[in-house]
Amino acid sequence: MKTLIYICMAVNVGAALFLFFSLFSSGQDQGGKGMIFLPILLLLACVAASYFLMGSGHTGWALGISGFPVIILAYLLFISVT
């Protein structure tokens, strides 16, 4: 169970890093950068919350919090590929 939580946390951090680097590579105005920065904060908050819950022994809640963004990211990847 903990391995699955760590995988979900790694996917969330990877998505946050991808969004962070896309801030600097795109020619967006300040409003566009702000709209990209909010999901970065939310993804990192999910990682921190799931790490805290896993340390407290609540692995089910940790998997739910870290797995929810992964499901959304997988759905967005599916939409963009097909």
Please provide a brief summary of the model.
The protein is an all-alpha fold. It is 89% helix and 0% strand.
Query: Hey, roughly how much beta strand do the residues contain?
Result: under 5%
Which overall shape is indicated by the principal axes computed on the Cα atoms?
globular
Largest sheet, in brief, is:
none
Care to count the β-strands? 0
Fraction of residues in H or I helices: over 70%
Rounded to an integer, what's the Rg over CA atoms?
Answer: 14 Å
* Content-based structural category: mainly alpha
Strand/helix succession: HHH
As residue ranges, the low-confidence spans are none
Give the N-to-C terminal Cα separation: 31 Å
Kindly state the mean pLDDT as a whole number?
Answer: 89
Task: Give structural notes.
The protein has 82 residues and is mostly helical. It is 89% helix and 0% strand. It has 3 helices and no strands. It has helices at residues 2-25, 30-55, 59-81. The radius of gyration is 14 Å and the shape is globular. The N and C termini lie far apart (31 Å).
